[in-house]
């Protein structure tokens, strides 16, 4: 994931249309629905802290974990600007080791899709369970197989802003169930543009594959929803949420 080093600096601009406040409200609705009032929450693959910092502002104690020091650097700058305190840890979630038991663990906006290997995914799920208090919630989403194979995969996107422009060429490999995103980013530096190239890869998981991985871990309740609703996922859902209660 060293590839995030250049991307980190343009990530928020590329995500500017995402309603992170809405995501947080949805997560709070899940807390309420499950009857928990969490205090201590960790967010895995927290990136530039878009969800982390909003939750911290709303009074929760947050630990943000990410493999990219560059993403965390930006997350920290933003938490300072927002006047919130978040513990940011530069960790690989496949080797999770957190200092405390938590009421909630989150992993939103595709974090799980970055875990390409099924054995690693099972390891992440096991250690999340281990870090949760009884009754605690693990909430995560995935970009669906449908979205990676049919919408993002084998497609090219481009956007052109004054400070940054990008071309995003995507390739879906059905045999490996992997979607590779080849990114070319041009960042304005005084009177010139510097070109960065990097590749990101996401694993396409079917809902059932995730449910199979979660089975036997010990969660007493596992639910699955079409993102931002409490309805069952549909064949053409692009993002689905999993809610697992210990
Ligand atoms: C698409 S970004 C999502 C960031 C953030 N959750 C958000 O909502 O904007 C995916 C993040 O996953 C992180 N990541 C990928 N693999 C990881 C791993 N093994 N452990 C921890 N973080 C990881 C990347 O560094 C990146 O910040």
TrEMBL record:
Gene3D superfamilies: S-adenosyl-L-methionine-dependent methyltransferases, Vaccinia Virus protein VP39. GO terms for biological process: methylation. Keywords: Methyltransferase, Transferase, Ubiquinone. Residues 41-136 form the Methyltransferase domain. GO terms for molecular function: methyltransferase activity. It comes from the Bacteria. The keyword Methyltransferase applies. The keyword Glycosyltransferase does not apply. This is Ubiquinone/menaquinone biosynthesis C-methylase UbiE.
């Amino acid at each position: 994931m060293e590839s995030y080093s250049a991307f980190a600096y343009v990530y928020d601009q590329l995500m500017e249309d995402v309603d992170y406040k809405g995501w947080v409200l949805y997560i709070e609705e899940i807390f309420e629905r499950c009857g928990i009032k969490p205090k201590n929450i960790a967010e895995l693959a927290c990136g530039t802290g878009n969800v982390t910092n909003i939750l911290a502002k709303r009074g929760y104690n947050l630990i943000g974990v990410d493999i990219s020091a560059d993403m965390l650097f930006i997350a920290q700058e933003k938490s300072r600007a927002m006047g919130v305190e978040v513990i940011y840890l530069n960790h690989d979630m496949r080797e999770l080791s957190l200092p405390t038991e938590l009421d909630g663990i989150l992993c939103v906006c595709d974090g799980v899709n970055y875990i390409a290997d099924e054995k690693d995914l099972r390891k992440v799920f096991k250690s999340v369970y281990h870090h949760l208090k009884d009754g605690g919630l693990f909430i995560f989403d995935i970009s669906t197989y449908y979205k990676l194979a049919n919408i993002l995969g084998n497609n090219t996107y481009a956007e052109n802003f004054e400070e940054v422009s990008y071309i995003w060429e995507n390739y879906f490999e059905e045999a490996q169930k992997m979607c590779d995103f080849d990114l070319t980013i041009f960042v304005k530096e005084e009177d010139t543009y510097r070109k960065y190239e990097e590749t990101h890869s996401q694993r396409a998981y079917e809902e059932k594959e995730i449910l199979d991985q979660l089975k036997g871990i010990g969660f007493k309740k596992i639910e699955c929803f079409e993102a931002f609703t409490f309805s069952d996922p549909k064949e053409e859902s692009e993002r689905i949420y999993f809610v697992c209660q210990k």
